[in-house]
């Protein structure tokens, strides 16, 4: 394939590849100079993401036994994050040696898997937000949509839709002739294909899911406030505090990690950023920040849960574990006739207040 013509900085490529130059002085698709510290940072993020998400997968399979709807979504999110992290060593290697040494097949495979699992991570967060909305706002009517079989079906649909979204990566990813870098080689007109790809991935892979997440937690917060009024001021303040913390943690971290990446892409459609150290550094920052979101997920969806925290201690401090943690997160709140979720008596503590359970987020 012919090398790409000069195009916007990220040129429609995904995280795996450097799509186009920052300016016109570098041949299209060529890699800018990369400091060794950047490569080490990519590998560090990879190690942390793999370690944290592998631990989540082990805990869910070993201790939670896949008995809750939330654990099914958490498991899929962790699997997606693990696969997402596997692309980082390839990316770091390409930056370190300034070319792609793994051949055309691995270029297509790694780039496609990178896209699939990035989409899957975002869609999993969206599905989990919808699940939380149903659990709190419609605990009775939504019960039939919160069964394990439905969760497995929804998870399979997420993976299938992510594969569909990533088909352009499988078709157009290749090693660029004359440059040796793994990149996306769009057909003519290159600018149009690149622009369409950036817009459609930004809308369907970020802004759309973010809108759904914000809407879910906004409606959830309204419900918590309304239920707080009925049960008293003290409980209302407690519910609002927990709901606000959840909204801030989930939405802001998700948006904070991915918004710069998509903003840089969209802005660069109109203005080609100059090839300067600041612009180059900004590119590496937004890419590594998007990968870092996978490192944050174990903290957000596991360490904020008392049950997961106890299970982690069992795994890391006492490998033999104990019978008390095998079913630590297998019971979810049941709605009473008033429509407000009711905590099971066997799960007391601050993580199970009946309205918002961080252990099942």
What's a quick, concise take on this entry?
The chain is mainly alpha-helical and 361 residues long. The protein is built from ten helices and four strands. It has one domain: Rhodopsin 7-helix transmembrane proteins (Rhopdopsin 7-helix transmembrane proteins).
SSE map:
Layout: H1 36-64, H2 69-85, H3 88-97, H4 103-137, H5 148-165, H6 167-172, E1 173-175, E2 182-184, H7 190-231, H8 233-270, H9 277-303, H10 306-317, E3 334-335, E4 341-342
Antiparallel strand pairs: 1-2, 3-4
Helix pairs in contact: 1-2, 1-3, 1-9, 1-10, 2-4, 2-5, 2-9, 4-5, 4-7, 7-8, 8-9
Membrane topology: Multi-pass membrane protein
Region (Disordered): 319-361
GO molecular function: neuropeptide binding; somatostatin receptor activity
Provide structural commentary.
The strands form two sheets. The chain has a two-stranded antiparallel sheet. It has a two-stranded antiparallel ribbon with strand order 3-4. The protein has one domain (36-324): Rhodopsin 7-helix transmembrane proteins (Rhopdopsin 7-helix transmembrane proteins). With 361 residues, the chain is mainly alpha-helical. 65% of the residues lie in helices and 3% in strands. The termini are far apart. It has helices at 36-64, 69-85, 88-97, 103-137, 148-165, 167-172, 190-231, 233-270, 277-303, 306-317, and strands at residues 173-175, 182-184, 334-335, 341-342.
Which fold name corresponds to the CATH topology?
Rhopdopsin 7-helix transmembrane proteins
Radius of gyration: 22 Å
Shape: globular
Query: Which structural class do you get from the secondary structure elements?
Result: mainly alpha
Percent of residues in β-strands: under 5%
Spatial order of strands in the largest sheet:
1-2
Oligomer description: single chain
Low-confidence stretches: 1-29, 321-335, 343-361
Total number of distinct structural domains: 1
The CATH class, by name, is Mainly Alpha
Number of helices: 10
Give a count of the beta strands, DSSP E runs of length 2 or more: 4
Write out the CATH superfamily name: Rhodopsin 7-helix transmembrane proteins
Query: What is the H-and-E element order?
Result: HHHHHHEEHHHHEE
* Chain-averaged pLDDT: 74
Distance between the termini: 46 Å
Percentage of residues assigned to helices? 55-70%
Largest sheet, in brief, is: 2 strands, antiparallel
Keywords: Cell membrane, Disulfide bond, G-protein coupled receptor, Glycoprotein, Membrane, Receptor, Transducer, Transmembrane, Transmembrane helix
Pfam families: 7tm_1
Transmembrane segments: 39-61, 73-96, 116-135, 156-173, 193-222, 243-263, 283-304
Membrane topology: Multi-pass membrane protein
């Amino acid at each position: 394939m012919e090398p790409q013509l000069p195009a916007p900085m990220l040129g429609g490529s995904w995280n795996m590849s450097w799509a186009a130059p920052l300016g016109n002085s570098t041949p299209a698709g060529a890699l800018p100079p990369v400091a060794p510290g950047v490569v080490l940072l990519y590998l560090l993020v990879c190690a942390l993401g793999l370690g944290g998400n592998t631990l989540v997968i082990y805990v869910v399979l070993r201790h939670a036994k896949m008995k809750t709807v939330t654990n099914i979504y958490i498991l899929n999110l962790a699997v997606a994050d693990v696969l997402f992290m596997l692309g980082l060593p390839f990316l770091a290697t390409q930056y370190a040696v300034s070319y792609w040494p793994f051949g055309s097949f691995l270029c297509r495979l790694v780039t496609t898997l990178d896209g699939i699992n990035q989409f899957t991570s975002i869609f999993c967060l969206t599905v989990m937000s919808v699940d939380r909305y149903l659990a709190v706002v419609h605990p009775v009517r939504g019960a039939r949509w919160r069964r394990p079989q439905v969760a497995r079906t929804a998870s399979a649909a997420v993976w299938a839709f992510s594969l569909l979204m990533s088909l352009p990566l499988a078709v157009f990813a290749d090693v660029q002739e004359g440059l040796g870098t793994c990149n996306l080689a769009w057909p003519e007109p290159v600018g149009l294909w690149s622009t369409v790809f950036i817009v459609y991935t930004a809308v369907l892979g970020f802004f759309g899911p973010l809108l759904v997440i914000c809407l879910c937690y906004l409606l959830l917060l309204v419900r918590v406030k309304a239920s707080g009024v009925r049960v008293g001021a003290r409980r209302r303040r407690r519910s609002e505090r927990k709901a606000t913390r959840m909204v801030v943690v989930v939405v802001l971290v998700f948006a904070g990690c991915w918004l710069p990446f998509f903003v840089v892409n969209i802005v660069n459609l109109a203005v080609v950023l100059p090839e300067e150290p600041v612009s180059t550094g900004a590119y590496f920052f937004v890419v590594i920040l998007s990968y870092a979101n996978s490192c944050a997920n174990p903290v957000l969806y596991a360490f904020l849960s008392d049950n997961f925290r106890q299970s982690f201690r069992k795994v890391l401090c006492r490998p033999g574990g104990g019978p008390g943690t095998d079913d630590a997160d297998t019971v979810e709140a049941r709605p009473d006739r008033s429509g407000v979720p009711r905590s099971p008596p066997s799960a007391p503590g601050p993580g199970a207040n009946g309205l918002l359970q961080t252990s099942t987020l």
